[in-house]
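Notebook B, p. 112. Complex prediction, attempt 2.
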Amino acid sequence: MRFSLGCSILGLQWLSGLVLARSSDSCAAPAYVPTTAEKATPFFVLNDTELQDITEWLLDPAQGLNLTDATSPNLTQTDNYIWYIEPLRPNKTDVLAYLDGNASSPAKYAHVVMAEGGKAEPDMTDNETTIQELAYWYNGVHGAHVPFNSRPADGPRNAAILPLIIEVMSSIADITADLVDMVFYGPDDPRSTAHLFTTNPQSKDGSDCLIWIPWRRNRMAYFDQPSDLYTSFDFSGSDPSLYKLRMIVYNLVVYNSVEEFRAAYESGQIIKVPPPATDDSFLQKDRLGAVRDLENRLAPTSVELEGKRYKIDEENGYVEYLGWSFYHQFTRDMGIGIFDIKFKGERILYELGLQEAAAQYSGNNPFQAATAYFDRYYGIGSCNVRLVPGYDCPYHATYLNSTWNDELGVHEVIDGICIFESDLGHPYSRHNEATYIHSSKASALTIRWIATVGNYDYLFDYSFWMDGTIAVDARASGYIQANYYRPSDGGHWGPRVQETITGTLHTHVMNVKADFDLIDTKNTFLKTDLIVENITAPWFPELGEFEMMRLNFTELQTEDEGLLPVPTNGQTMYSVINKDQKNKWGESRGYRILPGISNVHLASQNSPFMKKSGEWAKQAFAVSRQHDTEPSSSSTQQQNLPWAPPVEFWKFFDGESLVQEDLVMWINLGMHHYTRSEDIPNTIMTEAHSSIMFAPQNWGDTELAVDLTNAVIYHANENGSVVVPDVNGVSPPSCFPLTSQDQLLGVFENQNP
Ligand SMILES: *[C@@H]1O[C@H](CO)[C@@H](O)[C@H](O)[C@H]1NC(C)=O
Ligand SMILES: *[C@@H]1O[C@H](CO)[C@@H](O)[C@H](O)[C@H]1NC(C)=O
Ligand SMILES: *[C@@H]1O[C@H](CO)[C@@H](O)[C@H](O)[C@H]1NC(C)=O
Ligand SMILES: *[C@@H]1O[C@H](CO)[C@@H](O)[C@H](O)[C@H]1NC(C)=O
Ligand SMILES: *[C@@H]1O[C@H](CO)[C@@H](O)[C@H](O)[C@H]1NC(C)=O
Ligand SMILES: *[C@@H]1O[C@H](CO)[C@@H](O)[C@H](O)[C@H]1NC(C)=O
Ligand SMILES: *[C@@H]1O[C@H](CO)[C@@H](O)[C@H](O)[C@H]1NC(C)=O
Ligand SMILES: *[C@@H]1O[C@H](CO)[C@@H](O)[C@H](O)[C@H]1NC(C)=O
Ligand SMILES: *[C@@H]1O[C@H](CO)[C@@H](O)[C@H](O)[C@H]1NC(C)=O
Ligand SMILES: CC(=O)N[C@H]1CO[C@H](CO)[C@@H](O)[C@@H]1O
Ligand SMILES: [Cu+2]
């Protein structure tokens, strides 16, 4: 692969009129440098053979599971069947014994989730391959069991609930055609113009299953084509003969039956509001308007003139970059997880990765008000999409396939992950002294993936900076879930953004697990408060008492203190330190946690839709003791059990000591989405952005990038002649033309002219 810079030479010439090094050469293709992880990854994906073996073994009547083959066309919700099989992530204890000691790779287990509709009290169960109940992951009241009413709306479940929806909607098709300009006779009926969508959560504690359906046009981006019609059904239990319609709501008036709705309609009592606009061209992204001056030129891009500075072991999902190394694993639920993150050979984090992404909506109608999505349930990882080169990721990024286990197979998205190094666009450090100038380059390696979960697109970046900093960034785009526009709402749930829709106020919260292991597993969480006190000082007798600030240190003693806010005015620095590991100056080596952009949590602490299921989303940060029995802040089946979730996050905080223990931080990224007309057609990633950063805090004896050669120094010479910069032997290759303004010579002489 070769690339030519011919076009940029022309561009520079036109802009500056000066091209010093005009070269027709193209830069030689960077050599790819492979690597091999010292230890094979313990974070595996099950292959087809293994999945088949496990399935056959479970289906064997000898196991006594009475399973029906999940691929059977006759599968119903009252059968027992396998819902999905995925690798069971090995316990940290076993992985560390393998990575750090002489233990062999942890034994491989599969996590099997079964639908048990064929039992007297049907539920869903998580069991291990030796058929052990996976109870140690779940601290909720139902343990590893999910009540029938909270089960996912999979094929057999949909087949059971659909007939009643079709029956009701067909019986009022003449009315819906008139009121909302759409009809529904079933998802596959060619006459249907409405889209079927059942909202979540569908249950509170598993005792019933009550769902809401918003009726929207079945066209492009139906999320943004809502009507003002909603229906609700009671689908409790496994006997479809007991299912019933609960309500029809139109123009915010409740009708308790089809008969009541029809009677109101036929007697002219229903006040009609406009159906959704039929022109949905506003949902397209095709270019509009005059081209801005010079914007017909290609946007700037980064180049790697001397080749990649990172190495990848694809088979082991292992990466090395300027002193960093880590493994990564992709899962259906959470996408990329990063493990065993080391900098210059020392472990910083055992695990870093997304746990859950929720979105809580609001509104003056039953659909928006009842919506609280837990995207892990849909599978954030399974919504991974192929990245668009040069747009989703910079040119020359390295693409990896994402591979994970889902329902009954091995799924692979080609080029679902990208890795690239970028110039951070500012010096790492710089200074001008009278006799000395220095400046150094800053760069970072980013591993990125994108998930399109229904209407929304989430972009996740994990970045490793050359100075020991780690950054996590989440961005959002895609379609907002719009609300039907009602002038009387007064904009209280969002502004009008098109003819018949408003944006809907909602909050995104994404939980990130950061299992710090600073050198080893004995770590302490330190709060450094910047406090202000009235003091007196003998050298200021004229002042009497006056205000002065200082630092005050508090170690979190126990988990009871583990739920933490974003510090007001930045007057607290959070850090994780290892008190047994001092730097040269006697300070405990640590990493600080820098709150970034928008570390929001849920505004409502008591919403019924996220009561206990969303405990992880109710504070900015949390610190708990690591336990193999507390691997995650949420779970796949959290969605439909807001009052009795499989994982009750706050139960992790049970008074255990946090001093020189194995600590885990649970960090929230998110956005209160104050919608705006600029969300149409799609939400903008420049602003829909949240971040967190971990930076060395007395980790070294000095800054950690003193060893980098991508830095320039000018030492004054005695005779005042031209000072030749020292670039440590690193400069752009001759194939890369520089302009006169890129010249390093003369910079020293021209300071303070
Ligand atoms: C699947 O993995 C097993 C090891 O667990 C290996 O023996 C087998 O060859 C693999 N099968 C395929 C199709 O890769
Ligand atoms: C499915 O049901 C049909 C009709 O009841 C039956 O003929 C067919 O054999 C069944 N198929 C399987 C795989 O059980
Ligand atoms: C086995 O499952 C079927 C449903 O698939 C159910 O009808 C039957 O009662 C179950 N048998 C036993 C012994 O539980
Ligand atoms: C993980 O650790 C828990 C708690 O010690 C234990 O019950 C479980 O069996 C372990 N799992 C595996 C796969 O070893
Ligand atoms: C691993 O094995 C080597 C050689 O047998 C031994 O010297 C070392 O102490 C062992 N390390 C651990 C952590 O057990
Ligand atoms: C990704 O998958 C494609 C298609 O199977 C394959 O050609 C390519 O080599 C894979 N890429 C990597 C990095 O494994
Ligand atoms: C310092 O004293 C002044 C005067 O009493 C008071 O107004 C102020 O709040 C005090 N500041 C602090 C930090 O206590
Ligand atoms: C300073 O820190 C100590 C020890 O944690 C604590 O007891 C004290 O209340 C703190 N003082 C202030 C003013 O925050
Ligand atoms: C002093 O200037 C001369 C030329 O003007 C140069 O050759 C020489 O290297 C300079 N001395 C130093 C220490 O840079
Ligand atoms: C469906 C199923 O096999 N459930 C089993 C899961 O494991 C527990 C404990 O071994 C058994 O009691 C269940 O029967
Ligand atoms: Cu949003």
